[in-house]
């Protein structure tokens, strides 16, 4: 398994896949896992692309412009890693729920844009549309939570609106939660996601 990661075994079948933002590490989102589902196993991954020494999950050409070729390659790498991790740690591959922030939310979104049955659900904090102009795989009834900032300078509100529409066109059930704290991940946003998780998963 090529990706640096932490695995904590839980007491339920579910696995929370934690995916940090730019410059983060596999330690960053561990506190969120306890808030969202304290019984789940945790698989927290570090991005293996470096941007000026900051870990990321895929390259970008500049702020807000993704290197699509690299995105596709890294998405495939993460998808394969999940298969390998399920085998290595003995968890059910179909019980993985992604929890991603910013760059981590984008790679989680990319899994949904490229693979059917890669995730059981997704919590995406401040994501952008991973790719445009492609046909999405069937995501019928897949629960997705999007936390977004109405005034987010990095991820404009329109990105959230477009992402919701694209995922819904593939059959996903998408819930939006809006904040007014820019690109920052807020406590109230996390609590909203935890409440959504309780009812949807």
Annotation keywords:
alpha/beta
Fold and architecture overview:
The structure is a single chain. With 201 residues, the protein is of the alpha/beta class. The chain contains five helices and eleven strands. A seven-stranded mixed beta sheet has the order 1-3-2-8-9-10-11, sandwiched between helices. Strand 4 and strand 5 form a beta hairpin. Helix 2 (68-89) packs across helix 3 (103-114). It is globular. The two termini are 28 Å apart.
What structural class do you assign from the helix and strand content? alpha/beta
Radius of gyration: 15 Å
Q: Based on CA inertia axes, which overall geometry fits?
A: globular
Strand content: 15-25%
Report the biggest beta sheet as strand number plus sense, adding barrel if it closes: 7 strands, mixed
Total beta-strand segments: 11
Tally the helices.
Answer: 5
Q: Could you spell the SSE succession in H and E letters?
A: EEHEEEEEHEHEEHEH
Helix content: 25-40%
Q: Largest sheet, order of strands side by side? A: 1-3-2-8-9-10-11
Average pLDDT, rounded to a whole number, is 96
Q: Kindly, what is the distance between the CA atoms of the first and last residues, rounded to a whole number of angstroms?
A: 28 Å
* Low-pLDDT residue intervals, each spanning 5 or more residues: none
